[in-house]
């Protein structure tokens, strides 16, 4: 007697029905990763949030103060507002210029045929330099008195600025430093461009599209996911800008005291005082660890919001483009 399709389907479902406790084995395999996540992310984040509501100096027991640290951060600390302004400035400028610069250099490298490996290596080499060493080299190049940059500008009758010693030029100089070490993003964008099918360019060329139109209508849409990565990476880089700002301020001020002196931090005139630098100063120089924790929570929330909002807007834009 042949089984009906309904009976056969029921038997098949019963055969592959999960048995009680089927989730235990996957959980066992995931246990090391879950333990590491809990130990190195969940617990520190929870402790950080707790300390942000306390007055804590690393020596005495924390004292609960409620929202006082957040109120002081948002309304009572003028240097925090200055640091936030500098950080937002760096985020916007670095994100825009880094993406434009990396895309342009990658587009040029994609067209190079002779010696392509050498040029790609030269472009990527600055990204291998440690941040401290790269900043020291850059401050030497842009030394207002003896640096090669101002010397070359002087040959053309141009009086070079003071760069890291001028409040108006310190952040642009840091931006140039960031562009100089953007080799990693350049190589990633280059890989995306080389992965674009050549048939698309050939078809566009047959339709009469020039290099600019092919780049705008074929290259950029094809590497859109890589561009999204570059934007998010640049935003996070700007929000966490610390080492380069501290080292550049120390060298420009002529002091070797990087960690403690207020004369060094933010030099000149707090123009290089970023939010992470002021957070570090509060936590490890003034020992206001509760206030520094509140600043950390604020920075974490802002970084998350930046990323989530940007990704959602890009998804909506791509969905609307697909529907049209």
Structural class: mainly alpha
- Quaternary state of the chains: single chain
Placed side by side, the strands forming the largest sheet appear as: 1-2
**Helix-strand pattern:** HHEEHHHHHHHHHHHHH
Question: Percentage of helical residues?
Answer: over 70%
Q: Quick one: overall form?
A: globular
Task: Average the pLDDT over all residues and give the rounded result.
Answer: 87
Supply the number of helical segments: 15
Query: Biggest sheet, open or closed, and with what strands and sense?
Result: 2 strands, antiparallel
User: Whole-number radius of gyration?
Assistant: 27 Å
Q: Got a strand count?
A: 2
Beta-strand residue percentage: under 5%
Low-confidence stretches: none
How far is the N terminus from the C terminus? 56 Å
Kindly describe this structure.
By secondary structure, this protein is an all-alpha fold. It has 15 helices and two strands. Strands 1-2 form a two-stranded antiparallel ribbon. Strand 1 (54-55) and strand 2 form a beta hairpin. The chain starts with a helix and ends with a helix.
Offer a quick outline of the entry:
71% of the residues lie in helices and 1% in strands. With 324 residues, it is an all-alpha fold.
Secondary structure elements and their pairing?
Blueprint: H1 5-15, H2 24-51, E1 54-55, E2 63-64, H3 68-76, H4 78-111, H5 116-128, H6 131-141, H7 148-155, H8 170-180, H9 183-194, H10 198-206, H11 211-222, H12 224-239, H13 243-253, H14 275-284, H15 289-323
Antiparallel strand pairs: 1-2
């Amino acid at each position: 007697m042949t089984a009906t399709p309904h009976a056969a389907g029921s038997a098949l479902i019963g055969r592959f029905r999960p048995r009680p406790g089927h989730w235990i084995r996957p959980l066992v395999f995931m246990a090391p990763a879950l333990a590491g996540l809990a130990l190195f992310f969940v617990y520190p984040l929870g402790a950080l949030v707790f300390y942000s509501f306390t007055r804590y100096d690393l020596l005495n027991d924390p004292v609960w103060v409620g929202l006082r640290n957040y109120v002081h951060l948002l309304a009572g600390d003028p240097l925090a507002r200055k640091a936030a302004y500098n950080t937002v400035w760096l985020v916007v400028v670095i994100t825009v210029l880094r993406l434009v610069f990396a895309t342009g250099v990658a587009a040029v490298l994609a067209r190079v045929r002779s010696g392509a490996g050498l040029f790609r290596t030269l472009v990527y080499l600055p990204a291998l330099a440690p941040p401290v060493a790269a900043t020291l080299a850059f401050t030497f190049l842009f030394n207002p008195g003896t640096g090669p940059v101002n010397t070359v500008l002087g040959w053309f009758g141009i009086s070079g600025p003071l760069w890291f010693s001028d409040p108006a030029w310190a952040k642009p100089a840091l931006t140039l430093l960031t562009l100089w070490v953007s080799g990693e993003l350049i190589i990633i964008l280059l890989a995306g461009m080389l992965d674009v099918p050549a048939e698309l360019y050939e078809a566009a060329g047959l339709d009469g599209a020039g290099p600019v139109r092919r780049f705008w209508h074929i290259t950029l849409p094809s590497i859109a996911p890589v561009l999204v990565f570059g934007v998010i990476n640049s935003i996070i880089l700007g929000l966490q800008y610390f080492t380069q700002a501290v080292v550049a301020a120390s060298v420009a001020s002529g002091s070797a005291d990087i960690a403690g002196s207020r004369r060094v931090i933010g030099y000149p005139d707090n123009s290089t005082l970023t939010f992470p630098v002021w957070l570090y100063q509060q936590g490890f120089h003034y020992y206001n660890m509760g206030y520094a924790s509140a600043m950390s929570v604020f920075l974490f929330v802002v970084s998350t919001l930046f990323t989530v909002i940007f990704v959602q807007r890009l998804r909506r834009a791509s969905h609307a483009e697909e529907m049209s």
